[in-house]
């Protein structure tokens, strides 16, 4: 097809990137299997699905042509602007391609002060020559407190209060042209036969040209299934209007009255019923409100299931099939008056933040817009047009439903569901019906090119206008060029391609008029992306990899006036070499946001001001939401949208540009085209870029990580901006728009809520957050206490970091209903009695003991009975648990909780070194004031032996109870603490220097700790983890005894002492059970590294372990430096074994 030059640019940038020394570490990867499912469980999304807003299906091909001419200088662009291009389209009959008058003057106005970009910019690895540039002072973690790992409702960390606010780059280019003046379109002509209202046009054609075709609908195979004539449209709309006004209520209390809103709920494959309903509402003088039908799980148009009644307000539902409508009396006629300022219909849009707003269009605006389109497109009666767009909104509604009736056109409607099964269907309809006009998006051009081989005998010679409605997308130029080069041999004329720019607020802003055959075509702008990021127009001549080629979208609409204002702050007119928001003043535009008076004033009642702040005239303008400029010959150029604007450190980036760069990095093997979302989140006083894409089920983790790393490098090289987060989610998990594209605002909301559940993620704060607080420096004569007091007096908080708020995060199981671990265990014993919680291995790797939920519950009850019968203990008494690592320790712990006693786990003494280990046991027993000791028969004999008597006074031991032979007595009542703040257990630990430390743990602390570990490690019932830790204190005890009961996962217990006789035990267990997460101590790592270092070849059969969590509490005698050496040696060793370090 077309050589993708942008892909080559990206590859060149990546090649250069490898040669440079990385100043910062590469991003680290975090992988989650919380949502990982088998490949066959994920239905891959349609690879041809595209977003309505992004049009990202064709971005990779689009980037190529956009960068093809990037080495041209300002003189070449000036010459092309005057002489015309070889691949663009035309102007109107009054502003035709052949007109060169005023072009030179306009060009001088725009580029009089435009200089070639040669200022100091950061080093660009994509450049063929070495250039330097100053990276804009970067960025910052969330001002709103929304950070990854922090819930939306969490308090903002005071770390942000000490952050540096980003400052503008002093070397950034600034606009130097003169202030622009509003540009007027051609006058709106007065035609004698134009109707006074759109309803009058329907009445005229419905009564005088009843048999003329109005609208043809297609079936799922792309063949015509029904043709609605103007006579049928008039009669059915009349019946519906009569039914709405006279048959829904009583004569004295009608349900509807003029001015009421009526929702039109129709699927995207039924244009006939929608058109009847729309005009029926207009005739009844009620306001139609087209809404999108809720999508099914498959997202198809043919099978629609409405949600339950609870999702809808109290409405009166009307089925508009003819058999349900009442025929109007012969003497009844609708009230058709001349078009005025009363509302005609409401078109809804979604803002960047996800809120839904309704643009109200008046009857006079609707009529004027149809007149302007008729003049700009030169529509004539009886013409056939093919509409591939959504007929319920935007250009699909304006051309295919409204202007269609004004000019008695015949519309062939091609729904999205047909395009998915037959992408060439619209081309076939143009050929079969000899259509004069086709309304498409770049997505449809791309699909037609992909399916071109299926049918070659088609002709597009009848087309005089191929209206590309997303021509405002800067990357649409290559889709137009590629489609022209492929279909020019099929009769497509170069002057027939007519890009246009539209928005719900300003409606059609500009459109390229049909050209004269043989006339020169308009030129194109080759602009510097770096200059665009600062909002100025700079002709690019240096680096072809950072150029943007944009085509014009024609001239201002007839009867309209356009100006460019600054996108932020007061609506100040831009300079001629400055990028701003396009504003339009015309009768053919929206009048307000329904019910939003404040937002309406800021959008629909804009009075431009000059640099001094004085109003320029008194004509109100409407903000279009598009960013662009007016070029030579009054041609309009669009370079982006306000909704897709990402402002990072004072620089503007277009989300579509970021998507295009990502797709150029060999994306076809890793992610789905058209299934990428780019947005920004507020982090540390600045915006940060987030990229989310759907990963293919067959893409390996290693391939995905390589692609993600290359995308980060490409974006940094081409756009000079860092990416805060790049996440890959499973297929079909991102929220969709009704036409199958990505719902950006909902995706952003899921990201902020932490509910995206990515399967692969790269967090890169080190590449973009560079305004972190500077470390405090010691001042002479001022100590740290003085600095702290000064900060407190000044109202500053000490810097801190916090995790997610556990109180606002919901678990997915019933554990959240139980406040105590004993209640959780009882619930699991009833709900899942046979679910295994623990599995104990010996040195041979053989299972020596297991414990299900029910077994653990029953053994705990027996131990509690023994404590009451033999120990005569009361609730609150401390009980020392003296057991070797195993399941007996766990049952004894829950037995104490069942009896209301406070367990104290203690490492048992070693039989070969009683004199060294038994005093520690004695010290903990005395300090804890234990009333009883639970242990095994072997250890009980050891405590009372002669060897023990030589070390301690064995007569002072408290009551010792062995639990080897437990009576089968059922506990009458399980103890329940009165409050969660009651003591649950005592955690004693001995440091390497012999210092004993005891920590009191309440039931509330236990639940919070278990919950935090569950969320952080993503533990759930089907998971298995391997634990090779001592189970007597700290994290080792919590993982060994508590977490499995709380989370329900299975813990494979490996006593560390067993590794002394079998060094392979831990790693072979991980291999045998295919463990993803394993927990160990530094001593285990050191043992494996030293003992297995010379047996690498034998261990290469091991699978890649995803997470190895080392307990930092188990420090060696040499301190942290020794632990660092152990970690480094272990990392080198596992790499040689074949385990991924990530």
UniProtKB/TrEMBL annotation:
Superkingdom assignment: Eukaryota
Region Disordered, annotated ranges: 15-61, 82-106, 121-182
Biased composition (Low complexity): 85-96, 121-138
Domain AMP-dependent synthetase/ligase: 825-1110
Gene3D superfamilies, A to Z: 3.30.300.30, N-terminal domain of ligase-like (3.40.50.12780)
InterPro entries for the chain: AMP-bd_C_sf, AMP-dep_synth/lig_dom, ANL_N_sf, Dip2-like_dom
PANTHER family: DISCO-INTERACTING PROTEIN 2 DIP2 -RELATED (PTHR22754), DISCO-INTERACTING PROTEIN 2 HOMOLOG B (PTHR22754:SF38)
Identification of the protein by name: AMP-dependent synthetase/ligase domain-containing protein
């Amino acid at each position: 097809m077309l050589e993708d030059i942008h892909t080559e640019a990206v590859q060149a940038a990546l090649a250069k990137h490898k040669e440079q020394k990385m100043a910062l570490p590469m991003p680290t990867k975090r992988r989650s299997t919380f949502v990982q499912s088998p490949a066959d469980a994920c239905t891959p999304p349609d690879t041809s699905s595209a977003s309505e807003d992004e049009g990202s299906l064709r971005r990779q091909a689009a980037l190529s042509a956009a960068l093809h001419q990037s080495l041209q200088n300002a003189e070449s662009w000036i010459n092309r602007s005057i002489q015309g291009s070889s691949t663009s389209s035309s102007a109107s009959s009054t502003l035709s391609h052949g007109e060169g008058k005023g072009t030179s003057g306009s060009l001088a106005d725009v580029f009089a002060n435009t200089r070639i970009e040669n200022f100091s910019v950061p080093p660009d690895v994509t450049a063929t020559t070495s250039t330097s540039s100053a990276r804009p002072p970067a960025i910052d973690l969330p001002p709103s407190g929304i950070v990854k790992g922090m819930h939306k409702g969490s308090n903002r960390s005071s770390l942000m209060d000490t952050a540096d606010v980003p400052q503008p780059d002093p070397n950034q280019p600034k606009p130097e042209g003169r202030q622009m003046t509003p540009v007027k379109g051609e006058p709106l002509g007065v035609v004698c036969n134009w109707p006074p209202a759109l309803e009058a046009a329907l009445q005229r054609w419905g009564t005088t040209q009843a048999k003329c075709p109005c609208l043809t609908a297609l079936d799922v195979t792309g063949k015509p299934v029904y043709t609605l004539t103007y006579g049928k449209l008039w009669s059915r709309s009349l019946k519906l209007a009569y039914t709405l006004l006279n048959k829904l209520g009583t004569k004295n209390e009608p349900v509807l009255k003029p001015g009421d809103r009526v929702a039109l709920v129709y699927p995207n494959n039924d244009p006939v019923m929608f058109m009847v309903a729309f005009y029926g509402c207009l005739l009844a003088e009620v306001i139609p409100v087209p809404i999108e039908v809720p999508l099914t799980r498959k997202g198809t148009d043919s099978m629609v299931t409405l949600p339950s009644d609870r999702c809808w307000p109290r409405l009166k539902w009307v089925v508009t099939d003819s058999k349900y409508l009442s025929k109007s009396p012969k003497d009844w006629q609708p009230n058709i008056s001349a078009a005025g300022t009363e509302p005609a219909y409401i078109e809804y849009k979604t803002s960047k933040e996800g809120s839904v707003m309704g643009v109200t269009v008046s009857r006079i605006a609707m009529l004027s817009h149809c007149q302007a389109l008729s003049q700009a497109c030169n529509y004539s009666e009886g013409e056939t047009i093919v509409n591939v767009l959504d007929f319920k909104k935007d250009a699909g509604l304006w051309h295919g439903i409204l202007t269609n009736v004004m000019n008695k056109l015949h519309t062939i409607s091609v729904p999205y569901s047909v395009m998915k099964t037959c992408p060439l269907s619209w081309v076939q309809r143009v050929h079969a019906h000899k259509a004069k006009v086709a309304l498409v998006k770049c997505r449809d051009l791309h699909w037609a090119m992909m399916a071109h081989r299926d049918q070659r005998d088609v002709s597009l010679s009848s087309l005089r206008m191929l209206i590309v409605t997303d021509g405002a997308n800067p990357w649409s130029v290559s889709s137009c060029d590629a489609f022209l080069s492929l279909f020019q041999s099929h009769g497509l004329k170069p002057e027939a391609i007519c890009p246009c720019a539209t928005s719900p607020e300003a409606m059609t802003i500009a459109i390229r008029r049909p050209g004269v055959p043989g006339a020169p075509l308009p030129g194109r702008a080759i602009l510097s992306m770096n200059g665009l990021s600062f909002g100025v127009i700079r002709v690019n001549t240096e680096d072809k990899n950072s150029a943007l080629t944009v085509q014009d979208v024609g001239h201002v609409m007839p009867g309209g006036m356009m100006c460019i204002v600054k996108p932020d702050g007061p609506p100040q007119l831009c300079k001629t070499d400055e990028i701003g928001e396009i504003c339009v003043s015309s009768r053919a535009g929206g009048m307000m946001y329904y019910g939003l008076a404040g937002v309406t004033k800021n959008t629909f009642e804009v009075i431009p001001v000059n640099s001094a702040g004085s109003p320029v005239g008194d004509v109100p303008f409407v903000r279009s939401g598009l960013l662009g400029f007016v070029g030579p010959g009054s041609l309009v150029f669009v370079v982006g949208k306000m909704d897709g604007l990402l402002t990072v450190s004072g620089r503007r980036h277009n989300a579509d540009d970021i998507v295009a760069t990502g797709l150029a990095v060999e994306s076809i093997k890793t992610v789905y085209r058209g299934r990428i979302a780019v947005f920004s989140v507020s982090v540390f006083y600045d915006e940060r870029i987030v990229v989310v894409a759907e990963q293919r089920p067959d893409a390996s983790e290693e391939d995905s990580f390589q692609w993600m790393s290359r995308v980060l490098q490409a974006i940094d090289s081409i756009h000079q901006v860092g990416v805060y987060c790049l996440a890959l989610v499973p297929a079909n998990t991102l929220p969709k728009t009704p036409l199958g594209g990505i719902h950006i605002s909902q995706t952003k909301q899921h990201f902020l809520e932490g509910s995206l559940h990515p399967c692969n993620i790269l967090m890169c704060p080190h590449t973009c957050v560079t305004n972190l607080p500077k470390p405090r420096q010691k001042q002479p004569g001022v100590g740290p206490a003085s600095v702290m007091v000064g900060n407190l007096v000044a109202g500053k908080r000490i810097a801190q970091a916090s995790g997610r708020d556990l109180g606002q995060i919901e678990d997915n199981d019933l554990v959240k209903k139980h406040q105590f671990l004993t209640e959780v265990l009882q619930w699991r014993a009833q709900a899942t009695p046979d679910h295994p919680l623990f599995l104990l291995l010996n040195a041979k790797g053989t299972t020596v003991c297991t414990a299900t939920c029910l077994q653990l519950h029953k053994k705990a009850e027996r131990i509690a009975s023994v404590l009451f019968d033999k120990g005569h203990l009361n609730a609150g008494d401390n009980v020392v648990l003296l057991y070797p690592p195993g399941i007996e320790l766990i049952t004894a712990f829950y037995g104490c909780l069942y009896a209301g006693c406070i367990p104290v786990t203690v490492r048992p003494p070693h039989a070969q070194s009683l004199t060294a280990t038994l005093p520690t046991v004695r010290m903990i027993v005395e300090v804890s004031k234990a009333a009883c000791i639970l242990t095994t028969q072997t250890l009980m004999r050891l405590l009372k032996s002669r060897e023990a008597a030589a070390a301690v006074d064995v007569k002072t031991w408290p009551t010792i109870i062995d639990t080897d032979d437990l009576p089968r007595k059922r506990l009458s009542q399980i103890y329940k603490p009165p409050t969660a703040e009651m003591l649950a257990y005592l955690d004693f630990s001995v440091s390497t220097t012999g210092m004993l430390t005891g920590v009191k743990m309440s039931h509330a602390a236990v639940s919070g700790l278990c919950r935090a570990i569950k969320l952080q490690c993503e533990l759930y019932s089907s998971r298995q983890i391997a634990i090779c830790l001592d189970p007597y204190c700290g994290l080792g005890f919590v993982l060994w005894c508590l977490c499995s009961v709380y989370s329900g996962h299975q813990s494979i217990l490996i006593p560390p002492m067993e590794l002394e006789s079998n060094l392979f035990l831990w790693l072979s267990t991980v291999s045998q059970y295919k463990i993803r997460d394993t927990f160990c101590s530094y001593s285990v790592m050191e043992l494996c590294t030293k003992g297995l270092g010379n047996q690498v070849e034998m261990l290469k059969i091991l699978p890649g372990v995803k997470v190895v969590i080392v307990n930092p509490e188990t420090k060696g005698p040499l301190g942290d430096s020794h632990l660092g050496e152990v970690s480094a040696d272990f990392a080198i060793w596992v790499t040689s074994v074949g385990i991924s370090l990530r």
